[in-house]
Every structure is written in C-alpha cells, then in structure tokens.
Write a structure and sequence with these properties.
The strands form two sheets. A six-stranded parallel β-sheet has the order 3-2-1-4-5-6, sandwiched between helices. A six-stranded parallel β-sheet has the order 9-8-7-10-11-12, sandwiched between helices. The protein has helices at about 20-35, 50, 70-75, 75-90, 105-115, 145-155, 200-215, 230-240, 255-260, 270-280, 295, 330-335, 335-350, and strands at about 10-15, 40-45, 65, 95-100, 120, 135-140, 185-190, 220, 245, 265-270, 285, 305. By secondary structure, it is α/β, with parallel strands linked by helices. It contains 13 helices and twelve strands. Helix 1 (about 20-35) runs parallel beside helix 6 and helix 1 runs parallel beside helix 10. Strand 1, helix 1 (about 20-35) and strand 2 form a beta-alpha-beta unit. The chain folds into two domains: about 10-160, Glycogen Phosphorylase B (Rossmann fold, 3-Layer(aba) Sandwich), CATH 3.40.50.2000; about 185-350, Rossmann fold (3-Layer(aba) Sandwich), CATH 3.40.50. The two termini are about 35 Å apart.
Amino acid sequence: MRFVSFFNMSNKILLIRLTSIGDVVHVLPALNALRTAFPDAQIDWMVEEIPAQLLIGHPQINNLYIFRRKWRREFRRYFFSNIVPFFKKIRSVKYDWAIDFQGLTKSGLAAYFSGASRIIGFGDEDGRELNKLFTNVKVRPSRSLHIVEKNLALLHPLKIENPPIRFVFPDFSKEKVPFDDYGFFVAVSPGAGWSTKRLPLMTLARLCALLHLERGLKIIIVWGPGDESLEKELLELIKSFGASADAAPPTTIQQLVRLISRAGLFIGGDTGPTHIAAALNVPVLSFFGASDARRNKPYGKHCIAIQKYDISCVPCWKTRCRYKDSRRLACLESITPEELFRAAESLLDSGLNHEKNPVSGA
C-alpha cells in the first residue's frame, strides 16, 4: 500500500457521486474546497450521464468518468464488454483517495473497484445499505448538518476544515435561452422525481396567479423530461384563475442552468432545478413534503423553505405516500397558496438585487 501524505499537492483524488442533479450540486462546494487546498492535484469525478451534464467542462475537474445507467440496470449484460474495461482504466490511475459522497452500495462498490488506497465515506446513517463495507476512512458528521456541510465533513481526513462554501459551475454563458426581453421573471418548477415532493398543482397555480395578478410578475414554467403533462395542466389551471404564464421550451441541462440564472425568483420543491437556483444565488421559495428541509433545503442566503413538521409522519423519506385516506399527502396538501404568497412577498420585498453566482466557470 502506498504511503499518502496529507500535504502532497500532487494527490490523485476520485470523487464519487453518481446521481442525481441536486445531489451533484450539493457536492460542488467540496470540489471547490479540494481544488483550493490542492491546486496541483488530479481531481476526477465518477457520475452517471444525466447529472454529468452539469460537470462537463468544469474548470476544477481534470477527468470526468461517466458510468452509464444502463450498465447498472443490466449488470451481467455489460459486465465484461463495458464495466470491466471502465474500471481497468480507472485503476490504472492509482488514486490515493476516493471520496464516496453518495453512501450507497453502488457508490461503495464503485469506490472499491477504483483501486484507491483510501476510501472516505460516511460512518453514520448516511452510509446506507452495504456502503460501510467498502470505506476504510469513516467520517461521522453531526446529524444536524445540512447535506452540503455533511459533504464538506468528508474532507476532514484530508485536513480540510471549515472552508468557505462556494458553488462553481462550468461556463454556460454561451447557452442560448429564451425570454431575453422578459426582464424580471419568476421561474416555477412543478415536477419532482417523487410524488411526495410535488406540491398539488392547484396550490401552485393559485400561487402563480397571485404573483401575476397582485404583483404583476411574469411567470415561466420550467420542466424536464416526463413533466410535459404537469406543465400543460399547470398552465391551464393558472389560466382558470384569470392569470397567465409561459412555458419554457425543451432545454438541455446546460440551457436550464442558464435560464435559471436569469430568474429573479425561483419556486420549486426538493429537486435539481431548485438546488441549482440556490447555488446560483437566485432567491428561492421551496416547499417540502417527504424529505427533510433541515437536511436538504436550498442552500443559499436568500431562500425560504416551508415544511409542516407538526404532521407526525414528516419527514418520512418515502417516494410514495403510505396513506390512502384523508391523511394522504397531508404534508403538501396543508401548504396553502396564501402562505406561499406571503413568503414570496417577503423575498420580493427584501430587495432582489443580490449578486448572482456566475455560470461562467471559476
């Protein structure tokens, strides 16, 4: 086993966060801290193809390894033809450190197969499934920390403590986005991967109508693959309240980041676009159901997260609500358009001329 110095500026470090978009955003401050501490190190990242779109061309990453999602789903089919050569290439680098920010069996296996001398991972409840079997340097952050801070805690074995928190994105400034003549607008995201993270469309439509009718604000609905029906229904519901909104056209992830960066206010749940907005220092109003806002709320100075902790099952961390009666999705059904509107007004009235995080790289 090679001797690894904490202060060797030529360390080879592999970051592992395979999914998803919001979770990749939450690792960016750790990437920035590593690059600041080790400017000459080789810092690489293993990620699946969809969130990889956030990292292509990143100025703080030397190499990006894209682990195809289909390889994981059809492991036996692709094992010898793709997976073995993939990890053979990675092992040839001879990494000093692998840092597993995901804490699952799949990420633990990826770290183990990388051949890294030291594998840093979560030694607490964030090291889930069989993950702890693959980590040989375990970190146990305080349970009260936000996930961004938990990720930064994984850098303690590298003698990086309490670094400034900075989100750095690749240069997306040349991406073409619509609504150039809109000026100030509110971007609204109705979608989420879990049904337990999606606010009822009627509530969201009423909120959009209030913002349009009471504040005269332009509303843009942003959406991704699979959200087409949500976007169309939301537009119809907003129209039924006597208000109007526009839908963003289909966008790449890079175009979506650029579009979000131009918004004056972003509204969404615990999803990738919401966390991108917060990382870009766009004021964010968010709502939470199954996941815990104390851990996952948008990480920014100008963010408000609304969650009903007085409901006994909150947070449940379930992708589907287990209730079939009147308690079904009470965590989200109990959030009213009026309280969301008041929260949005507090952000609007606090002055939204905040300096935004650029999307033009480091």
